Amino acid sequence: MPHQRFPKIEIISSAPQEIQFILSDTDTSMANALRRIMIGETPTLAIDLVEFHENSTVLNDEYIAHRLGMIPIRYQAPDSFKGGDCNVAFLPHRECVCYDRCPRCSVEFELDVDFDQVNPTRADDEVLAPLTVTSRDLKSNNEGVEPAHFLNQDEQDESQDEGIAIVKMGPGQRLKLKAIARMGVSKEHAKWCPVAVATYRFWPVIVINEEQCSTLTMEQKMEIVDCCSDRILEIDEVTGSLQAVENAHEMATFTEDLKYTQNSMKKNPEDDDFVTVTQSTDKFLFSVESTGAMDADEIVLSALRVLKERLNYLAQEVDNLKDL
């Protein structure tokens, strides 16, 4: 098969809330398809329906329902501690055969907070302060599904609340509701988006022309180093030659100043550049940050699964056309 490619992924760093990896041996069409699927077609759980029984807070029902919908809902498989792909445990609501809702296509949350009942249990210095209703007050009927209260432990340590704030209430106020979470994708609504950031950029290819650089003085080399706002170059302390810094690939974004500075140092305009920075056409640096609904690596795996299913479906449809 001509131009057959075998894409590869190399993990640079991985944490529950963020992952950086290199996608290579492919082109921009595959890289952009993966990015768009992570943003728009990776299924997650989100609150889709809210039934209010009592709401005497300062916010109306619609406002609170919208805030509930934007709370990330995290699914954990029984044998895992990671926020995983809910596709293995739930069906899309429209594909389920139940009449209204069932445990196969939805998860119920209940919230019932009464200021007058909670206030006597608070510390003395908090009695006169408003009570903050947070995602911790949402009680799930599914042990494997709960709100993602914080993105990581550092965020939890710095927060003054016990979870994501929903509304503040005072004396005589109460909020009681039932919320239904369903599986969906953010092509339908942004509340189902599992990523806060999903970007890629072209891998920078930095080539240093040693022969040309040998004609430069140390002052000129320093000028080339200093003209790069991204600080991607340095001078070797032993040899005195120009070289790329260790993490140049993470910082190389703007190199126009480098081009102008080099042109002013050339003896002839047609001479080769001392340093060339170009964009690779088959290597991409991805950065993915989670909202907390799924671990970052699970988002990538889920997106790859969806992409594979789309390609298999396309191949099947092409085969069906051949049979006509």
Give the count of helical stretches.
9
Shape: flat
Please summarize the sheet with the most strands. 4 strands, antiparallel
Number of strands: 14
Radius of gyration: 27 Å
What is the H/E string?
EEHEHEEHEEEHEEEHHEEHHEH
The low-confidence runs, each spanning 5 or more residues with pLDDT under 50, are none
How far the N terminus sits from the C terminus, by CA atoms, comes to 25 Å
Portion of residues within helices: 25-40%
Strand order of the largest sheet: 1-2-14-11
Features:
single chain; 324 residues; alpha+beta; 4-stranded antiparallel β-sheet; 31% strand; flat
Task: Draw up the topology in text.
Layout lengths: L7 E8 L2 E7 L3 H13 L3 E12 L5 H9 L3 E3 L30 E9 H4 L12 E4 L4 E2 L4 E3 L5 H6 L6 E5 L4 E11 L10 E14 L1 H4 L4 H10 L5 E3 L6 E3 L3 H4 L4 H10 L9 E16 L5 H28 L1
Antiparallel strand pairs: 1-2, 2-14, 3-10, 4-8, 5-7, 5-10, 6-9, 11-14, 12-13
Helix pairs in contact: 1-9, 6-8
Give your account of this protein's structure.
With 324 residues, the protein is an alpha+beta fold. 27% of the residues lie in helices and 31% in strands. It has 9 helices and 14 strands. A hairpin with a 6-residue loop joins strand 12 and strand 13 (242-244).
Write a short abstract of this structure.
The chain is α+β, with helices and mostly antiparallel strands and 324 residues long. It is 27% helix and 31% strand.
